[in-house]
Specification:
The protein is α/β, with parallel strands linked by helices. It has 7 helices and 7 strands, in the order βαβαβαβαβαβααβ. Strands 3-2-1-4-5-6-7 form a 7-stranded parallel sheet, sandwiched between helices.
Length: about 260
Amino acid sequence: MGKLDGRVVIVTGAARGQGEQEARLFVAEGARVVLTDVLDGQGEALAKELGEKSARYVHLDVAEEGDWEAAVAFAKHAFGKVDGLVNNAGILRFNELAETPLAEFEAVVRVNQTGTFLGMRAVVPELAAAGGGTIVNTASYVALSGMALLTAYAASKGAVVAMTRVAAIELAGRGIRVNAMCPGAVDTPMTNPALLDPDADPAETARAVDELYRKLVPLARIGQPREIASLALFLSCADSSYITGQPFVVDGGWLAGASVV
């Protein structure tokens, strides 16, 4: 018996990184997963690998209202219902506050904040029709603690935490639980763009990342996507049946403070 047997879950940004690991883990736990992304080649390949009985892929730009309508319709056609959503898709831009162009700020908010809003709104009728369900939103460590160069990102992720609380209150009566994950640094292409650089030395990149987070994080390492996926699983299954409206920090102790050693 899997923890998600019989569940149908939409995962955004599922072509790589955290979303990929969430999709893999959910399928392993018995869910049928609709993978969505704008990276069509990678998303389609992953769905094929997982098998069409358990996974299907559909293109979804989370900031586009029409794409959400199409994705939900696709999920219902493929698997008959929708009773879970993991809002994972997001983008990250580094810039000083005084140097951040309005267009850059708005682009980050459009994906991270508006995309999360549209996703929740799109699935609520289906989750209610299924008798209840779960929404897991991906916020961030920086929604709860400041970090230089991340004004746009922090603003968008702070909004995700706030929307999660409101949605949890409004939707509890329909049997829908809504929670947020607040990851610290995670070893994905978004956090570590060198992973996408064909000219980068993987060993050198790994050493630099290890050295940085050994100093910053009490557990002395960067997080792994599978560890975030495990939290998403917990918040999507019956193990968390009495939990809603909460931000869950998964950061190796970073938010707790810095070691003096």
